[in-house]
Specification:
The protein is mainly alpha-helical. The protein is 78% helix and 0% strand. Helix 1 runs antiparallel to helix 2.
Length: 109
């Protein structure tokens, strides 16, 4: 009676399933924060450098300097926001929109 099994040994307990879901959500959040934040920062820096009305070299430098701060802010926001869908949509959607804007603007003359 004391050592009796409860449930079958092949099905994981509901707590184990919940832990797996939480672990996958955290992995997605980390991937979005690190990789997606980098992609978003690089594309936004490219867009800003393309839009600045100064020489190419100076525009690139002025766009990349705040990029370090922007990347940190995006990464912190990814872990602060409680909804994963909002994080994924914001970071990857922003990267797609900014990338489309860079593509539509084309090469700087």
């Amino acid at each position: 009676m004391l050592m009796q099994r409860v449930g079958s040994p092949t099905t994981p307990a509901p707590r184990t399933r919940y832990v797996r879901v939480v672990a996958l959500a955290m992995a997605a959040r980390c991937l979005t924060a690190f990789l997606g934040g980098y992609v978003l920062t690089a594309i936004v820096a490219t867009l800003v450098a393309r839009l600045l009305p100064i020489a190419r070299v100076e525009a690139t430098i002025w766009a990349m300097i705040p990029g370090f701060l922007f990347y940190a802010v995006v990464g912190l926001w990814c872990f602060h926001e409680p909804r994963l869908t909002r994080v994924v949509g914001g970071v990857w959607g922003g990267a797609i929109v900014a990338g489309a804007a860079v593509w539509l603007l084309g090469v700087r003359p």
